[in-house]
């Protein structure tokens, strides 16, 4: 029987399109006067474009030490295997409701349940709030008796970056690492040093200035090059098998 890692890796490779948000390319430049609450509202409205949940998926809301979360359960799911999904949104937006449908499709296709949760968002809660909440949710999962080698981390965009940052933190703390991880278009460099920020500016879905604003909001008064903020600068040796998926065209 295929392993948890191979099943999820193959499904993610074949179905990464499920997390390509079909939003209009908004080219209105961002600055520090851009309304984050309005942006969050637009993201929630845009989530409706992903359609209804696939059949056979049950949603079970729960609270994890003050963190809003929910189980996405496929029919006949094995209860000890879990996709631990960390949502994206530039660290300033994202919720269970706006990621529920695409994550449910991963659940449906893989036959593995998912835990989706809402970490605190910037600018109200800058680093390390998001990573603290992610660690708290993961430790809670282990406390429920789920073995770490039966868990796969997955996340998109900022959530993909948080996947890698959380793995670094777990390694540094000597805590159990998951079996594997999947990072879909992860945001790994909040210093924005990559040449692609300039060469792909014309085709990037994000409006001009958004990355700089979100980086500042999330890093707060910290150096954005810290590995827990920008895992590109961390020592990734010793992490579990990790699939990093990205595209060169839209």
From TrEMBL:
Coiled-coil spans in chain: none
Keyword ATP-binding part of the UniProt annotation: no
Entry EC number(s): 3.1.1.-
Gene Ontology molecular function: hydrolase activity
Keywords from the UniProt entry: Hydrolase
Ranges where the Alpha/beta hydrolase fold-3 domain occurs: 83-245
One Pfam short name: Abhydrolase_3
NADP is among the record's keywords: no
Top-rank lineage group of the source organism: Bacteria
Active site as annotated: 157
Family: Belongs to the 'GDXG' lipolytic enzyme family.
UniProt-recorded name of the protein: Putative acetyl-hydrolase LipR
Taxonomic source organism: Pelotomaculum propionicicum
Gene: lipR
């Amino acid at each position: 029987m295929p392993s948890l890692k191979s099943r999820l890796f193959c499904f993610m490779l074949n179905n990464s399109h499920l997390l390509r948000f079909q939003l209009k390319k908004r080219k209105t430049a961002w600055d520090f006067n851009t309304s984050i609450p309005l942006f969050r509202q637009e993201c929630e409205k845009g989530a409706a474009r992903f359609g209804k949940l696939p059949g056979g998926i049950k949603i079970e809301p729960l609270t994890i030490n003050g963190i809003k979360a929910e189980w996405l359960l496929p029919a006949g799911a094995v209860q000890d295997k879990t996709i631990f999904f960390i949502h994206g949104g530039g660290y300033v937006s994202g919720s269970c409701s706006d990621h529920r449908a695409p994550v449910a499709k991963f659940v449906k296709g893989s036959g593995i349940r998912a835990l989706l949760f809402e970490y605190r968002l910037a600018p109200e809660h800058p680093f390390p709030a998001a990573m603290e909440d992610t660690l708290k949710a993961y430790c809670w999962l282990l406390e429920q008796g789920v073995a770490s080698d039966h868990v796969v981390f997955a996340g998109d965009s900022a959530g993909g970056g948080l996947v890698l940052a959380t793995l670094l933190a777990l390694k540094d703390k000597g805590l159990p690492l998951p079996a594997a991880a999947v990072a879909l278009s992860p945001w790994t460099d909040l210093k924005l040093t990559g040449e692609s920020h300039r060469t792909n500016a014309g085709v990037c879905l994000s409006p001009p200035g958004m990355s700089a604003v979100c980086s500042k909001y999330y890093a707060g008064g910290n150096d954005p090059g810290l590995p827990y903020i920008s895992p590109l600068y961390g020592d990734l040796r010793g992490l579990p098998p990790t699939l990093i998926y990205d595209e060169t065209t839209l």
